[in-house]
Write a structure and sequence with these properties.
Pfam families: ABC_tran. By secondary structure, the protein is α/β, with parallel strands linked by helices. The chain is built from ten helices and ten strands. The strands form two sheets. A six-stranded mixed β-sheet has the order 6-7-8-3-9-10, with helices on both faces. A four-stranded antiparallel β-sheet has the order 2-1-4-5, with helices on one face.
Length: about 240
Amino acid sequence: MNLLELQGVHTHIGAYHILHGVDLVVPQGQVTMLLGRNGAGKSTTLRTIMGLWHASKGRVALAGQDITAAATPQIAALGVAYVPENMGIFADLTVKENMLLAARAAKRAEQMDAARLQWIFKMFPAVEKFWNHPAGKLSGGQKQMLAVARAIVEPRQLLIVDEPSKGLAPAIIDNMIDAFAELKAQGVTILLVEQNLNFAKRLGDTVAVMDNGCVVHAGSMADFAADTALQQSLLGLAI
């Protein structure tokens, strides 16, 4: 079963026609990798799914429900979390305050789900270590961990992350891969935009490759990982 489906999605931003009929499926309970050269339309696809930009044509469906024209808060309320490429961290707030803002069911830190927080701390120790520190003082890798931790502070059915490995040290990438694998094991469906092919190979179940605002290849990540000629033709030397 597919949790998320895009059918013939076009997106215009002002005078610019960015997406040209995107067809994409994200199977439930799996990790789907969205790959492509810079400017292929990957981030625009994520923003269109989240309702930050609205499709000018086509359909976006979540668990069979049409969300094409839904507002971003409505989509989030359906259990969809989004981590943008810039992470969206509130630098002047503490790590705790960043987490509390995302925990909509809690008004104070004490009301956050303690068991869930402990689970998050186990995956992302830096979140616990710097709990009372300003988020702006964290390293790039720690901010990325906070951004993902914040997205999952409440249970989500779909987690969408734009370039989670960007700028991260190899040890931090390993930690991030373990965290996404743990989330998948908990039943979370994950859609990731990535430039790091090794990261994608290690984590992805399925893959879709974009070029010029369209999906030009979709299938098994294992098959794609084994086909270097296909990788070269679709991704060039960008990865």
